[in-house]
Amino acid sequence: MLFLNMMACDTVDKKTASVPSKIDNSKTQKHNEMEKQSKATMDVAMAFMDAMGKGDMDTMVSLMDDTMVWQNEGDSSMPWIGPWEGKKKILEEFLPLFMEHFKTTKWDTEDAISSGDVAAFFGRMKGITMKNNQETKEFTFALRVRVKDGKIVLWNWLEDSFEVSRAYNAK
Question: What pTM does this model have?
């Protein structure tokens, strides 16, 4: 008798497991929406990086939200460090200042991931500080990008600022 009860329970469990519940459908739908948003976020971030690499300012501008924040972490003696808030300030102050002081000579993205409205990139780069023509050693970077409504609202750049500072402040 016990064996039959166990079999009946087993059969019921199999039937129950094969019928999708409203909860399972909701989770699947949310997962699909998250995957779609993650892909859209990655597409925007990659398009912006591609445009930046080509010097395509029109595409860069089209992908920037008016309220975008460009946050560079690091040694505050380097004039491009700090939060730059607003598309206008980024375009008129930050980018010219950065280009005046630093030239990227190598930029290799090794890993890229996205989840929802955030993408993250990790890699290695090198550059030359224009103030004194000092080349950096290769250093690592991480980048966090947040996208809202197809526009970049946050570009949070994290790098080995010790190496960049060493080159920038070399005599």
Answer: 0.81
As given in the structure block, the two tokens for residue 38 are 């993650």
* Dihedral, 144, 146, 151, 155 alpha carbons, nearest 10: -30
d(CA 49, CA 43): 10
Is residue 23 exposed (0-12), middle (13-18) or buried (19+ Cβ within 10 Å)?
A: exposed
Rounded Cα–Cα distance for residues 9 and 77 (Å): 71
Per-residue pLDDT of the chain (171 residues; tens, 9 = 90+): 333 333 344 444 444 455 555 667 777 888 789 899 999 999 999 999 999 989 999 999 999 999 999 999 888 889 999 899 999 999 999 999 999 999 999 999 999 999 999 999 999 999 999 999 999 999 999 999 999 999 999 999 998 888 999 999 998
Residue type, 56: D
Q: Beta partners for 50?
A: none
- Alpha-carbon distance values, 113 to 32, 47, 147 (Å): 16, 15, 13
